[in-house]
Structures are given as structure tokens and as C-alpha cells.
Amino acid sequence: MTPQTRTLIWLELCNIFGLNVLRHSKTKADRKKLVFLFVSYSIVLLVLLGYMIGVSYTFIMFELADIIPTFLILIASLCIFFLGTLKAGSILFRKDSYEILCSLPITQAAIVISRLLRMYVEGIWITLAVLLPGFAVYAWFQHPSASFYLLGILSIIFVPCIPIISSILIGTLVTGIASRMKHKSLVSALLSLLAVLALLFALPQFSAQLVSIDGNMNQDALKALASFAAEWLKQIYPPATFMGTAIIEGNFLLFLILAGISLSLFAAATALITTCFHSICQKLHGTLARHNYHMEQLKETSILSALCKREFKRYFSSSIYVINTIIGPVMGVLFSGSLLFVDTELIATFLPASSDISDIAPFLLASIFCIMTSACVSISMEGKNFWIIKSLPLTTKNILDAKLLMNLLLILPFYLITQILLTLALKPGLLSLFWQLIIPIIILLFSCTYGIAINLHFPVLNWENETGVVKQSTSAILGGLGAFFFSILCTACILLIPEPYTNLAKLGLCILILGITAWLYQHNNKIDLKQL
Q1: What three-state secondary structure class fits 250?
Q2: Which has more confidence, 103 or 334?
Q3: Quick one: which of 21, 93, 248, 356 has the most CB atoms within 10 Å?
Q4: pTM of this prediction?
């Protein structure tokens, strides 16, 4: 390995979690932001660990322990694939670094290897977070042989290889197709979203099979479920099935074959990307200037309208921004639509006797919509050009109102579709319909205002890559998940309250949320943006 490659690898790895800022920054504010970022990552990690432990224990309870390794490898691979698809164009073929490095005596291989290893290390972290807790639960209850531990640890090294290569292929195709079109960022976001949803559509088949199982499961039903689950996993991602089987059975030959195939594909992809790296970057980042601009009639609008249009232009100019903030509303529509094909009475059997699905549906819907709103990173996305908007004769209220309004208008079409589908599925009474309409709106107002408040306290304006702001910043984690967990907490409160007091509890929660939202709104408007 050449010194150039080692240096670039070190720089890429240091920039994953902002370690360079922590090491070299002399300002307490930057260090404080990084500390909060690490705390946020720790919280997300704990939630993920708890989820994987719970899922693994559930499989053991249903006597499906042998499926655990395959399932865990599938989940880790899908996570790596989803994140890699969204980040491939912005990390592997990012424009800013390419323009700088091209002027230096650095080989293409050094650039490609360093960036691929960065994606690989990120994949290793995801694999560790998913596999280790599940394997620990399996080992605790099943007491496997020594080969399980050896192959399980080795699998962590090879699991990310194929998903990373697949995500690079899809991500590059999406970025390449979009770069040739007029609205390249919007097209890239739509293509990425379609790729994600295409894989998600495979999940309802498995979920429907689970729901159709009778509550009093006998041995035959368990065997049928195990057979179906194994076949389903094999259809989704065959390598996960083969590797999971090798780990369970201690089949070293099968494991070595899979490891060899994974490494060979990774090496071949690295060689291919290295060979075509320069031409790919030129085609992705090349632009065509047309001198056909004609002055049209100028129109005068209000300050709020002009700023709101500016927010929409900024939003749709970034595919990473769009795809990460639109997934919540899209999932909300899918959630409501799925209720049309599910027996709601069967779902009600899993709820407390005093609760009804129409009581918790508004809170669940709001929690889905609140996942990563655009407001929670809207300040940071201004970047180094924020000085322009700050230099205009505008108040903080003018700027923040536009960001708030843009977020609400963006969600509005999805909200209307969701409400129509939810009404058709649940057929609520007049009072239930009122709560169904009003509760998500109130929580969404809180979510957007809360997201702006978080971003005002943890802005990142000196970024070089939008991915770091949208995916890895403190605002993205705290602002994107804070309102989600708050909605889940409200759902739990409604489930615990006796039926005669449910409507009173909803009224109390709405008043409380509106009060908190009003306080946050006033607090945000008092902040001097010129000090950011």
C-alpha cells in the first residue's frame, strides 16, 4: 500500500465521525456539538440493540432459533444497502474532493480505495450493531458449538461486501441517470425512493403470513411458519441464507466459498471503479451551459411567499435532502393504505381491552410523519451561503416562518391522502374522525417547531458534504427522532388510560403539545441568526 493510499484512508476514516474537528478544533462550541452527536449516536445504538435483542428472543420463543443468523445478516445487509445507495454518489464520486485531488500527484486507485474503505468501515459498524446482540441472544439460549462463535465473528468481516457493491451500482446508476436530466436532484431522489420502496414491498407478504397465523400455535403451525420464513429469506437475499446456514451447521467449506465470492466481487468492483473513476466523475459532474435565457415579467410577492419559494428550490436541489426527509410521509401513506387490506379487528385483539385502534391510529400516523422532517436540518442546509440571507433586512421570524411553512406544505399532500385512506379503512365515528384529523396536525406543528429549535442550537454551516448534515449531524438525530419518540410516548399514554377518560386525555395532550409548540416558536424567534 502506497503512502498516498494510507494518508487518504486515514483522512477518510477520521472524517466519518468528525474526529478531526474534535482533535484540532479550538472552539468549545464545536467540541460541544460533537459530544452531543456522540450522545445521540449512543441513544440510537441502544435502541437498535434493544430491537435486535427483542426480535431474536421472539424467534427463540416461537422455536425459530435457526433462522436468527440468516435474519440478522439480511437486516444488516439491507441497512448497508439502503444507506449505501443514498450515499454512493456523494461519497465515492463526490465533486468537491475530486476537483482538489485531481490537481495533486495522487493515483485514482488511492482515491477509490480510501473511499471504498470508508464505506466498508461504516458497513462494519452497522453489521456489529445488528449481528452481535442477536448472536449473543442465540448463544445464551441455544448453547452452540465453538464453530458458531468463530464463523459468527468472521461473518462480520464479509457481510458488508456484497451490499456495498450492490449499493454502489444502484447509487451510481441513479446519480448517472439523474445527472443527464434537467431537474437532476429531484429525479435522483425519486429514483432512490423507488429503489427503497421496491424492496419494502417484499415485507407485506411475510407480515401477512404472520398475521394469518392463529393465536394458539401448535407444532405443525410452527413448522409451517419456519418453512415459510426460511423460503422467504432465501428469496429476498440468498447469500444471507447460505451464510446463516453455514454458521448454524458449522460448515466451514460453504462459509469459505461465500467469503471468497464476497471478497472477489469487492476486489473486482474496486478494480472496475478505479479504471473508470475519472470518466465516471466527468460524466456525473459535467454541465452543459445554454445561452438561451430570456427576461420575463417580474412579479412582486410577499416576503413569506418569496422566502417559501426559496426554501422549496433549496430543498429540491439536493437529492440527499429530499430522500431522507420524504420517506416519513411516504411511509405514512403506505401505513394507511395497508390498513385497507388488514383485518383491523384482528389488530384490536393485541390492544388492551379498553383501547380501540381508532384511539392510537392518529398518534401512530403522526409518529411516522415526524421521522426526520426537513425542518430539523433546514438551518444547516444553508451552509456557507447563510450569510446571504442573514445580510438581508429580514427578521428571524421571517426566515423561520418560511422554513416552517415550507415543511408543512411539503407534508400536506401526503397528509390528505393518508387521511382519506385511514377514514376508508377505520370508518371512524364523528368524534374519532375529529381526533384523527386534528392530532396529527398538532404533533406535526410541534415536530417542525422542535426540529428548528434543535437545529438553531446545533447548526452545522461549514459542511463540505450534504450527507454529513442530513444523516450524521446532531440536529438530524435529535430533531429527526425526538418528535417520533414523543409521539410513541403519547400513544403509550392513551393505551394506559381507561376508556371513559380517553377523549379527555386526548384533549389534555393536545393542549399540552400546543403549549410547548407555542413556547418553542417564541423561543426560536428571539434567537439572533447573525450569531450562528
Answers
A1: coil
A2: 334
A3: 93
A4: 0.66
Give the integer Cα–Cα distance in Å for 374 and 32: 23
Inter-residue contact 400 to 525 (CB < 8 Å):
yes
Helix axes of 161-179 and 108-142: crossing angle, nearest 10 degrees: 130
How far is 363 from 33, CA to CA, in rounded Å? Answer: 31
Q: What is the pLDDT of residue 31?
A: 67
The string of pLDDT tens digits covering residues 219-273 is 555 555 555 565 666 667 788 888 988 999 889 999 999 999 999 998 888 888 8
Amino acid in the structure at residue 362: P
The DSSP-derived string for 475-493 is: HHHHHHHHHHHHHHHHHHH
Which cell goes with 78? 439491507
Cβ density class 210-248: b for 16+ within 10 Å, e for less: eeeeeeeeeeeeeeebbeebbebbbebbebbbbbbbbbb
- The amino acid present at 290, given as its one-letter code, is R
**Contact, 319 vs 192, CB < 8 A?**
yes
Kindly list the distances between the CA atom of residue 353 and the CA atoms of 71, 496, 524, in Å, as whole numbers in the listed order: 33, 10, 42
List b or e across 122-146, with b for residues whose CB sees 16 or more CB atoms inside 10 angstroms: bbbebbebbbbbbbebbeeeeebee
For residue 382, the number of C-alpha atoms closer than 13 Å in the C-beta half-sphere is 24
Q: How far apart are CA 366 and CA 349, in angstroms?
A: 22
Residues 278 and 420: their CA atoms lie apart, in Å, by 50
Pairs from 488-495 (Cβ < 8 Å, separation ≥ 24): 488/363, 488/367, 490/363, 490/443, 491/360, 491/363, 491/364, 491/367, 494/355, 494/359, 494/360, 494/363, 495/351, 495/352, 495/355, 495/359, 495/360
| Segment 21-31, tens digit of pLDDT | 666 666 666 66
Span 130-185, pLDDT tens digits: 899 999 999 998 888 899 999 999 999 999 999 888 888 877 776 655 555 555 55
Residue 510's nearest CA partner among 363, 371, 364, 376 is 363
Q: Could you give the CA distance from residue 95 to residue 501 in angstroms, rounded to a whole number?
A: 58
* CB-count exposure of residue 495 (10 Å: 0-12, 13-18, 19+): middle
- DSSP-derived letter for residue 385 is G
